[in-house]
Amino acid sequence: MISSDRRDGTLPSAPSRRDGSSDAGGVTILRETAPGKLNLTLDVLGSRPDGYHALEMVMISVSLYDKLTLELGTGEPWAVTCDRPDIPEGPDNLCWRAAKAYFDAAGTDPGGLRIRVEKHIPAQAGMAGGSSDAAAVLRALNGHYGRFSDEALREIGLTVGSDVPYCLFGGVALARGRGEELTRLPDLPGELHFVLVKPAFSVSTPELFREIDRAGVTARPDTAGMIDAIQRKDRNAIGAKLQNAFEPLVAALYPMMEKLRQTLLAHGAIGARLTGTGSVVYGLFCSKFRAFSALLEAEELCPEVYLAEALPAPRTDGECKMHNA
Ligand code: C5P
Questions:
Q1: 66 C-alpha vs ligand 1 centroid, how far in Å?
Q2: Is 94 in the pocket of ligand 1 (CB under 6 A)?
Q3: End of a domain among 185, 211, 235?
């Protein structure tokens, strides 16, 4: 997924890294893509002494990507910019924090850094857009400098956010702990289409965690059943096992959520759920035709609608210590 080129248009004189960039003088440009994620399941097992919650989630990466450009060695103060005005720029952006965490851990300085983010993943959506951008920065930097194993990179990622290790791992996975204990699951069966609908409201993640501490979990996923359905490549069982512990809380706050879910189901979705803490609601379809008709109908309710597919597990460099299911 990583590519690099030279801003001055010259060919790199001495390619020395696995991403093909050069160590010669000037600015090195790295490009990287950052896919969004969906929760097939999300369970909250309890609160932890460190203030986080113990989670259990089946996650997938989907074909909706942010695009990042990193310029190393600009000789200027660091800058992070984004094409969406509602996303923070500068040190508050997770990309900045990821780059800082990387260079702090590596004990090096790039001599100036500029990151540009082109957003396509909806923001404040439960799709880990910010975390995936941060993961893309770590992936791009490590593709260039090659300092860390996959496992060490995920540890750096966890200092930036709970979803960053998963975003580095990618594909279909079981995530436990804060979200950093990752187990690879088989790719989803073919011919599955996701219709994603982003309502106008956005939900505060910390507030929802506080609310679930108070209200308790009333919609507990059958995580083992979902894993079994994935292993058997049983599309209908996957659709039936979609579940999210936050959904009843979000539905109570925003009735539009349930309306969207029912619209997707009425158009042939084999399951429809909230992802993460929302506010995106997705429907899972076995037929692209049905997915399109649902998409057109959902567009009448919310203008921000997307069609996406599940991505296969990314290739790893063999250094990654992952648990295989
Ligand atoms: O780790 P991250 O900064 O992405 O988490 C955002 C917020 O989500 C945390 O401040 C916390 O309120 C909540 N959270 C949690 N338990 C987790 C992950 C996130 O309570 N495992």
A1: 22
A2: no
A3: 185
Does residue 322 lie in a domain region?
no
Give the DSSP per-residue string, 74-115. Answer: -SS--EEEESSTTS--GGGSHHHHHHHHHHHHHT---SSEEE
pLDDT digits (tens, 9 = 90+) for 284-311: 999 999 999 999 999 999 989 999 999 9
Does residue 323 lie in a domain region? Answer: no
Q: What confidence category does residue 19 fall into, taking pLDDT thresholds of 50, 70 and 90?
A: low
CB 299 within 8 A of CB 199: no
CATH code at 60? 3.30.230.10
Separation of CA 130 and ligand 1 centre (Å)? 13
Mean pLDDT of 259-263: 97
C-beta 49 within 6 A of ligand 1: no
pTM: 0.91
Return the residue whose CA atom lies nearest to atom 13 of ligand 1.
206
pLDDT > 50? residue 24: no
Task: Decide if 32 contacts 2 (C-beta within 8 A).
Answer: yes
Domain housing 296: 193-308
Residue carrying the six token digits 């209200």: 215
Do 169 and 40 have their domain in common? Answer: yes
Number of domains the chain contains: 2
Give the residue numbers annotated as catalytic, written as ranges.
Answer: 37, 163
